[in-house]
Protein: Trehalose 6-phosphate phosphatase
Amino acid sequence: MTVPADDGRAPQRGAPVTTTADRLPHALDAAEVSERLAGRRPAVFLDYDGVLTPIVPRPEDAIMTDAMRDVLHALAGRCPVCIVSGRDRAVVAELSGVDDLVIAGSHGFDIHDPQRGVIEHEASRGWEDLVAEVTERVRTAAAEIEGTQVEPKHASVAVHDRHVADADRPRVQELVDAVLAEHPGQLRVTPGKFVHEIQPKIDWNKGKAVEHLIGVLDLDHPDVVPIYLGDDITDEDAFRALARRGDHREPGLGILVIDPADAPSRETAATAVLATVDEVARFLDGLAR
Ligand SMILES: O=P(O)(O)OC[C@H]1O[C@H](O[C@H]2O[C@H](CO)[C@@H](O)[C@H](O)[C@H]2O)[C@H](O)[C@@H](O)[C@@H]1O
Structure:
């Protein structure tokens, strides 16, 4: 059950509280954040695009800065740090230049820990042939639409339309609809920024991946506060998962990375907001001290 934050009732413990981005406190000076962290250890889960790197016109140009990498490594010296991205895991590793942290790629389907190797979970397999077939189908059809960019991934295929002429955008939607219709009940489209991401229709997402990691990494302790930073709609699964933990233990913290002036009415289950990637770096730097 979702209880709106501002309906006059006290939220039920464990129910994800939703609000809008313009009502969130700023994470750099929010009492909610400092009070929750007081005397506890953070465990930090980070989205990649829009959080560790700014959104840029071409996916391959989202290269993490040396400064952000230094912040991550300093933080990783103090507490667990995991990257949880919609991107292919290998691409995250390449663009971030990070090979010593846990990375959950492909919206959490593909998780790897440098210490433990690949981390299996309930949605680890069974969809490979479907994804391969759909990737080929999308690649062929998208080649007919100028400006599309197809991004194959471990457990999905993304077709970007940021550089498609407005008049041609409906063709991309038609392509996506056609592919879904060819595989009734087997696929879903994950929302993103100028991207249609076609995934197996399996009950797995970034929130489930974070919950799984909390268990595998032995972080399920009263003195550990899981914190998730994300900017996209898919990150709301992780915000909700951390908020729900309050059913039987202290909830985690969700931090939405968005300029509230750009999206004041964005519904979110996050606890606080950061407006820019620079503010993310300052926040993480503060946690590392
Ligand atoms: O979960 P994330 O790590 O945030 O990844 C979400 C998607 O990010 C990438 O696409 C988005 O960022 C690109 C670079 O800034 C931008 O050019 C594109 O328009 C955005 O949609 C990535 O390419 C996708 O695979 C991820 O799912």
